[in-house]
Design a protein that fits this description.
InterPro entries: Ankyrin_rpt (IPR002110), Ankyrin_rpt-contain_sf (IPR036770). There is one protein chain. The chain is mainly alpha-helical. The chain has six helices and two strands, in the order ββαααααα. Helices cover 44% and strands 3% of the residues. The longest helix is centred in the N-terminal third of the chain and has 11 residues.
Length: 121
């Protein structure tokens, strides 16, 4: 089983995750399903791969091409773009924007991704 690993040099995802995620998407898994906090797998993968030196952004592309919502909000109103801004990852932000992430969506507290990015440095 392939897992997301958090540790000293984390976040990272094993290369075999590409194959696993691609196959899950191909069999029609619900990429919009949410956990108790309203996070989709896109929220979680953006968090896990943002700032990574590994070529894991491809996982985000697979999810987006499989129907994941680039503008889906969790229970706090965070979109994947908010999460990418929190981790101060310009490459992830650019990728999400390329796939239609809307930078004008605010959290339920009225915070835009640009506000988060400015505070993150």
């Amino acid at each position: 089983m392939t897992t997301i690993v958090a540790g000293e040099d984390a976040p990272r995802i094993k290369v075999s995750s590409y194959f696993l995620l691609f196959n899950i998407a191909m069999i029609g898994a619900d990429v919009k399903r949410r956990n108790a906090h309203g996070d989709t797998c896109l929220h979680l993968v953006v968090f896990a791969t943002s700032g990574s030196r590994h070529p894991t952004k491809r996982l985000v592309e697979i999810l987006l091409k499989s129907g994941a919502d680039a503008n889906g909000q969790n229970t706090k109103g965070d979109t994947p773009l908010h999460i990418a801004a929190m981790t101060n990852d310009p490459d992830m932000i650019q990728l999400l924007l390329l796939y239609g992430a809307n930078p004008s969506i605010s959290t339920f507290d009225g915070i835009l991704p640009i506000h988060i990015a400015a505070n993150a440095g």
